[in-house]
Structures are given as structure tokens and as C-alpha cells.
Amino acid sequence: MARIYFTKSLPELDTAGWIDFCKKSGIDGVDLAVRPKYPVNPDNCLKILPEWSKAFKDAGLVIGLVTAPTDLISPQDPRARAIFEGCAKAGIGHVKIGYFPYKGDLQKDLQEARKSFAGFSDLSKKTGVKACYHTHSGPMIGCHGIGLRQLLEGFDPHLVGAFLDTGHLAIGGGPFTIESDAVSNWFSILAIKDMSWSQTESGWKSSVVPAGKGFVRWKEVASAIKSRGFRGNVCLHGEYSAENPESRIALAKAEHQFLNSMGI
Fold this sequence. Notes:
Blueprint: E1 3-6, H1 15-25, E2 29-33, H2 45-58, E3 62-67, H3 78-90, E4 94-96, H4 106-127, E5 130-134, H5 145-152, E6 160-165, H6 166-172, H7 176-182, E7 187-192, E8 194-200, E9 203-209, H8 218-227, E10 233-236, H9 245-262
Parallel strand pairs: 1-2, 1-10, 2-3, 3-4, 4-5, 5-6, 6-7, 7-10
Antiparallel strand pairs: 8-9
């Protein structure tokens, strides 16, 4: 198990910057956003991913996950092959793919998603890199654990995985114990988010806050992952505001310490 940090929040940092971030915050490595306008992107990842991976390994750190663009939902997409093959060359074992949309007909949309997911399973088998799907609240197939089970049912858990998000499940899912039970065979990565509600002129709005500052039931999360013997990577998403990189390091360090106190 490694505790990793999503690089989405600081797209300007290079390997040295992220290595310094991890060392100062006590984090084991990163969840690397491989997206347009980031240092590592779908166009250069075949070459750059192995270089980044080596730099992290030399520093005693890991790239525990690569996160693809949110619209990467076809295994025939040239970006998919580039990212999976780049991860294979770099020794990175997991890729978070994009989100299958709900377009108004659940059964039809689910079957289309499962057809695409079968292709990702084949790509995983060829490259040795597991395709993971993230529970994100909103109009997406697999937006919670029970819905995600419908997407994953019948697929080899060595090839595809469930990426459960504490914050999004707190908004749109059931008790974490049930949600994790639903996908226990595929449960590969845990995303750390806490959430809060605020009332605006257009209605109630959710926002991400540092772990321990919102309404996620952390004792329930800790109990569930302990009972399931979960040993996958734990990813701090850090999708909250911070005044500057130094402030973000301090917040990451505080989250790291909070998770330690909760046994997560």
C-alpha cells in the first residue's frame, strides 16, 4: 500500500517539484495526471513516463497510478494504447480511465459502457496494466459502488479495478460498508476526499475540503477497509483550494497525519 497525491492541482510542477512535494508532505508518491497541458500527456507519455518513473524510484517514491483524460472511454482511442503501453514501459500498474456518461437509457448506456470496458480489459491483459474506474457523483455509469458492480460484473479483477471515492460516495452513494462490499472483488484504489455543503443563490453546492473537515464518515471508511483487508493504494485528491504550493504541502501533510490517526 502506498499513499499517493493527485497531480491535477499543480500542473506546473516537474519531477523535481513533485519529489520535493512528496518528501516534505510525507507522501509516498503521486497519482500522475496524464492529460493535455500537463508535463506528461498522451502525446509524449510513451517516452516521458519511463523517465518520470525512474526519477521517482531513484528518490524512493512511486507513481502509483496514472489518471487519463476524463473523456478517454474507448479502448480504440489512440491515447488509450499510448497511455497503457507507456505505463507498461514505466512499470506503473494502474490507469484510471474516463467516465461513461448516462445519456437517458440506463440499460442501453450500461451495455455500451460494458462493451467498451471489455476492450479495456483486453488492453489490460496485453499490457499488464489494470484499467480502473472511479466513482464520481453525477450522471455517469458506475457513479456509486452498486452501480459500478453492474459495470464490472463478469470481468477479471486482475485486469480491471474499482476506484472508490470517499467524497463522491458520501454525496451519491450508500454507507461505505455497502459500497465497498458491492465491489469487493475489484476494489483496487481508495480516493480520499472530504466534502461540505454550502447554500448559494442557485441552490446547494458541494465542495471538496481537506480530510476530516467535512461530512465523510471516516470511522465507517476505516472500519470497512480494515474488514475487507484492503491493501491497495490510497490517493489524496487534494481538490480543494490552497493559497500557494507551500500551503498545499501543509494541507497534504495534515491530511496524511489525519489518515494515520484514522488507520487508513
